[in-house]
Write a structure and sequence with these properties.
It is built from 41 helices and 33 strands. The protein is an alpha/beta fold. 39% of the residues are buried.
């Protein structure tokens, strides 16, 4: 302790001293509120709200509010807050962290600031680490809040949206950090404002704040949707990894090559960095195993990725330490809490690699739809505070990340726990022998022992050693998560031995002599009460159910009975020395060690703690002093003699500080990257909320239209010299939206008379006219909703793709450090550019869709990537529906006959109707076929028309017969095919024309004027179904033919070429028949232009295997192509 601290006290001492005066005021008001009746006391809630409404602040009314809670607590809970609890409540209200030792009543402390801040009406969130604590605390403290006229909500897993919305609308809401974080993400995915459940983030009190804001902050919250199917390379890489020889080393020395470090090893595991790297020998084996010429080549990056994950899964990730396998699933174990992290998966394919290692089903890859770190979620709150028993060691992180200081609140009674010096043994075997002897010695005198371990496998090792000695004990770790609170609550019984991972059971107090609540529950279970009824019996929820009320009465009687028994037993435990906490290893965080020690000595009880260590423990082995190990070996000390040396304490503490610093830097690094995402996320979510609010989007849409046109002008006609304009590119970009085939085809004389502003003005006039036409078509009111629907869908779809792209960028940007570039800075720069591209893409797709959209009977918003079922829509209009696959059943023909239809209209059936169905309707069966029959009979007429380079196609309305599209034709309507139009875009236009033609044909039939003509079979051509095999192409064909193929295969099955053994799908191209070069030669990279057998293709949009759609030029830049490179 420094001289300054001795004279002036610690920071916490000084802060507590400032609060003493406030505590005096609260206690002085005790008599005033004690004299009130229950009704008068309850009425103080409205009185205090009235004071706030008149302009007073929460600080002004704090003494009265706290005094009201203190009095109400004594009346309804039988507990009055101690002075130190009042001080803790003030600290929390001030937006700080109150460090209060185990057993000091933090649950009650939270009621003080929660009540005060709930009076503002903005809502208070009390955040806990698990559902059990959230439910228990909300029901128990809910008695107090409801007495004072406040509502209480509970957010736990399994609630529907309506229940969640009601819970968040309450004055005070209890819930877990995971559920609240996920609700925030889900709120920003809804398509109607009414479906949002949270109402803002005013004030949060975080229980076990260090666990939530630090330990769990290493892993972001992620909502995922189904992605690609699992890659078979995971299993192949796993089989390869099993053939390799591993060499383990404390820390890789960058000055040595792998031969010096690992001799004949195939891969080296760096235990400090928790990483695995292939050696030169391992690389040669990989190249031979996978048939590769050079594993380091860029095109082999997928192999490298899978191999690295496989050797990390085998060499670094340990079963029952890092994860457990339960019910055929790999479940992550939090290294700090020892709890299973349900719903979490390792990223970047590591989880799949572990699944391959363990022989369980390899789950498909996930695609991130929304994500946020806990740091950025909790920084949403206008005021944030917390409470815990251990926070001071992490105060720097709390200050730097969350702007929170830590105030250590004194204990109500003096701490009398004895913290013994550590015992350090030469070997792990000697340490475990000493541990067993210590446990047995305590057990024999009735002293309960809590054994803390750092991992599940160490817990099970000690359990086996005790079983071998015939010593009865309980084991608590991530495998027995469901019984966590029950097991830990009884750890203080006379002679009890409980083995626990260090943080398991956190939030549950260990009472000497046992816990009457759990003993009562056990008795009721033995008496035949079911688990659900026991849960209700121990709860505090309001109910009129007589069975529950009777069970509660019985439960209270049992608790009173066991309380009497426990008092006697508690005295015996105290006489034996209280709870003995035995640590089997030092954790890498001092805070976790302090948390384990804090299990003993609660509320002035006696207790002891001691850590048993060995020089073979991971912490000592990896971070300890080599000089110390050498000294012990020199002295020739045996395995069973503990080492006593002052150097040990400093060595251990220095090792812990180093790791704490490393972990902080890792968390800060994660946050630095997420801060970039957070800026983008806040902008997108804010714009989303503006759309959901229902305001008029007309001005925003007009700005998007103007930006869309300005972008086109800047890209294609920005030069002052008209001869340098790319008018073909402009026509291709705006085709089908604001221009047609004949636009921008100027004679030289015309070209000399116009400038870029003339073209811009003309396009803006067209856009304005088209916008007004769409408004008239839909009506202005309906078109406002259409604008909302289109904008929402585009924002959501593009944002999901952007998150995926940012993940890809993060996984690779770290390598730029080798080029002396800051990865975070590079991530910011590229991420910002990618975000701008996404905004441009949202703008473009929104404008294109709004100019093309046509009215439907039902205009409704829909979730991205879903569509309203045809069956539901048809039936909503009273049209009987028979689906494919059923019409060949004889019974269905009878069902149709029973309807007595006059006419059957077949839409997208794709099969030949059976004769018994064709014979039913009076006026026959008619079909809309999307070609000008008899050309392109069959399943894929639109695609084949585009692939074959047709200039015109159309729709035919025909009578159905038993042939393949051979019936007599009623009406036809031709449709022109655009030079750059895809089959998907063409199909959309054809079906619009087809609907008009179909209605006209039906009117002809109804009027009796229909005239059908037979088809000329001699002119017939077929359009068979397309296959994936037809999608592969090379550049050794004419550019025009490839351009038509690519257009025809979009949207399915999508044409692709291969580069580096990977597929590169091509969505859009432009064709230049005059260009020349060797097939596959890159003529330019921006835009990406590739020579073919004749002419050249400009690859506008591509989808590299395993990646997202991107501009061809962006793919070329990523591959660092230059002019003259070959793509085949």
């Amino acid at each position: 302790m420094s001289l300054f601290t001795k004279v002036f006290g610690t920071y916490s001492d000084r802060q507590v001293k400032k609060i003493e005066a406030t505590a005096d005021k609260i206690e002085a008001l005790g008599g005033k509120y004690a004299a009130m009746s229950d009704a008068e006391l309850r009425a103080q809630t409205d009185v205090l709200r009235g004071r706030l409404a008149k302009g007073e602040t929460t600080d002004d009314i704090l003494p009265d509010a706290f005094a009201v809670v203190a009095e109400a607590s004594e009346r309804v809970l039988g507990m009055r807050p101690f002075r130190v609890q009042l001080i803790g409540g003030v600290v929390i209200h001030q937006g700080r962290i109150a460090e209060m030792k185990t057993g000091e009543g933090k649950t009650l402390v939270a009621t003080l600031p929660a009540y005060l801040n709930a009076l503002t009406g903005a809502g208070v969130h009390i955040v806990t680490v698990n559902d059990y604590l959230a439910r228990y605390q909300s029901e128990w403290m809910g008695i107090l809040y409801r007495f004072l006229g406040l509502s209480v909500g509970l957010i736990v897993n399994g609630l529907d949206s309506a229940a969640r919305k009601k819970a968040y609308a309450a004055d005070i809401t209890y819930g877990t950090n995971n559920e609240m974080g996920f609700d925030y993400l889900r709120d920003n995915m809804v398509i109607y404002k009414e479906r949002m459940v949270q109402r803002g983030h005013a004030f949060a009190i975080v229980d076990e704040v260090d666990s939530i804001l630090i330990d769990e902050a290493r892993t972001p919250l992620i909502i995922s949707g189904p992605g690609d199917e699992s890659d078979p390379l995971y299993e192949k890489a796993d089989r390869f990894a099993r053939t390799l020889k591993c060499f383990r080393i404390k820390e890789i020395d960058s000055k040595k090559d792998d031969a010096e470090m690992g001799a004949d090893a195939d891969y080296i595991v760096d235990e400090k960095a928790r990483n695995a790297v292939l050696t030169t020998a391992g690389t040669r084996k990989a190249e031979a195993y996978f048939g590769l010429e050079n594993l380091a080549d860029a095109e082999n990056s997928a192999y490298m990725h899978h191999i690295n994950n496989a050797i990390r899964a085998h060499g670094v990730m340990q079963r029952d330490v890092d994860y457990v396998v339960k019910d055929g699933q790999v479940l992550i174990v939090d290294s700090f809490t020892g709890r299973i992290m349900l719903g979490r998966r390792y990223s970047n394919g590591l989880h799949q690699a572990i699944e391959a290692k363990e022989g369980v089903k390899i789950e498909r890859e996930n695609k991130t739809q929304a994500t946020i770190t806990f740091q950025n979620y909790f920084r949403l709150y206008k005021k944030l505070s917390g409470m815990t028993g251990t926070a001071l060691t992490e105060e720097n992180e709390f200050r730097e990340i969350y702007a929170l200081d830590v105030v250590e609140v004194p204990t109500n009674r003096p701490m009398i726990r004895i913290d013994h010096n550590d015992l350090v043994y030469k070997s792990a075997e000697g340490k475990y022998r000493a541990i067993i002897e210590q446990i047995i010695a305590c057990h024999e005198k009735g002293q309960p022992v809590l054994v803390g371990t750092v991992s599940i496998d160490k817990s099970e090792l000690i359990s086996k050693l005790l079983t071998k000695r015939g010593v009865k004990h309980n084991v608590l770790n991530a495998k027995f998560h469901d019984k966590e609170a029950e097991i830990i609550a009884q750890a203080g019984k006379l002679g009890a031995i409980t083995i626990s991972t260090n943080m398991a059971g956190r939030g549950t107090d260990i009472k000497l002599g046992g816990n009457a609540d759990y003993l009562a529950k056990g008795r009721m279970a033995s008496e035949g009460y079911d688990e659900a009824l026991i849960f209700e019996a121990a709860g505090y929820d309001e109910t009129t159910d007589e069975e529950i009320l009777a069970a509660r009465e019985h439960y209270r009687a049992l608790v009173a009975e066991f309380d009497a028994q426990i008092k006697d037993e508690a005295e015996k435990v105290k006489a034996a020395g209280g709870l003995y906490v035995l640590g089997t290893e030092r954790h890498e965080s001092r805070r976790i060690d302090n948390q384990l020690r804090g299990r003993a000595g609660r509320q002035g009880d006696p207790g002891e703690s001691r850590f048993f260590l060995s020089l073979e423990d991971d912490l000592m082995r990896l971070f300890g002093s080599d000089r110390l190990v050498g000294m012990v070996n020199t002295l020739g000390m045996d395995d069973d003699t503990p080492i006593k040396a002052g150097i040990l304490s400093s060595s251990i503490e220095n090792a812990q500080k180093r790791i704490e610093g490393t972990n902080f830097e890792r968390r800060k690094n994660v946050l630095q990257f997420d801060d970039v995402n957070n800026q983008q996320r806040e902008l997108i979510y804010r714009q989303r909320r503006e759309v959901l609010e229902g305001g008029d989007l007309r001005e925003k849409i007009h700005n998007m239209i103007e930006g869309f046109i300005d972008g086109a002008i800047a890209t294609y006609v920005s030069s002052d010299i008209p001869d340098e304009w790319n008018l073909d590119g402009l026509r291709g970009y705006l085709y089908g939206v604001l221009c047609g085939e004949d636009d921008f085809r100027y004679a030289q004389e015309e070209l000399n008379r116009i400038n870029a502003e003339d073209i811009r003005r003309m396009l803006l006039e067209r856009a304005d006219a088209l916008y007004k036409k769409q408004e008239e078509l839909f009506t202005p009111e309906v078109f406002r909703e259409v604008e909302r629907i289109v904008l929402l869908e585009n924002v959501d779809r593009k944002w999901v793709d952007h998150i995926d792209a940012m993940d890809d960028l993060m996984s690779g940007v770290g390598l730029r450090a080798y080029a002396q570039k800051n990865p975070v800075t590079e991530y910011k720069l590229e991420g910002s550019a990618m975000f701008d591209e996404m905004i441009d893409s949202i703008r473009e797709d929104t404008v294109r869709t709004l100019f093309r959209v046509v009215p439907k009977k039902d205009i409704e918003r829909k979730q991205v990537l879903t569509a309203p079922p045809v069956k539901r829509t048809a039936m909503a209009h009273g049209i009987p529906v028979f689906q494919p696959g059923t019409l060949r059943d004889a019974a269905q023909a009878e069902n149709i006959r029973a309807l007595a239809p006059e006419l059957i209209v077949v839409v997208a059936y794709g099969r030949i109707l059976p004769p018994e169905v064709l014979a039913i309707p009076q006026y026959g069966c008619i079909n809309l076929h999307v070609s000008l029959l008899p050309r392109y009979r069959g399943a894929a007429p639109v695609q084949w028309a585009v692939i074959n380079g047709e200039k015109t196609t159309g729709v035919s309305i025909m009578y159905l017969n038993e042939g393949l599209d051979t019936g007599d034709i009623l009406r036809v309507s031709p449709v022109e095919i655009g030079e750059n139009e895809t089959s998907g875009e063409l199909f959309e236009r054809i079906t619009q024309e087809g609907a008009r033609t179909l209605l006209a044909a039906m009117e002809d039939i109804a009027a009796g004027t229909a005239q059908a003509r037979p088809q000329n079979d001699a002119e017939a051509t077929l359009a068979p179904p397309l296959t994936k095999e037809q999608a592969h192409f090379g550049f050794d064909a004419p550019a025009r033919r490839l351009h038509d193929l690519i257009r025809g295969l979009n949207p399915w099955p999508v044409a692709y070429f291969e580069y580096g053994g990977k597929k590169v799908k091509v969505l859009r191209t432009l064709c230049d028949d005059a260009a020349a070069g060797a097939p596959g030669e890159i003529l330019s990279t921006k835009p990406l232009k590739v020579a073919c057998a004749s002419g050249a293709l400009t690859l506008l949009e591509v989808v590299p295997e395993g990646s997202r759609p991107m501009e061809g030029s962006a793919w070329a830049a990523g591959r660092r192509f230059t002019n003259g490179d070959k793509l085949q």
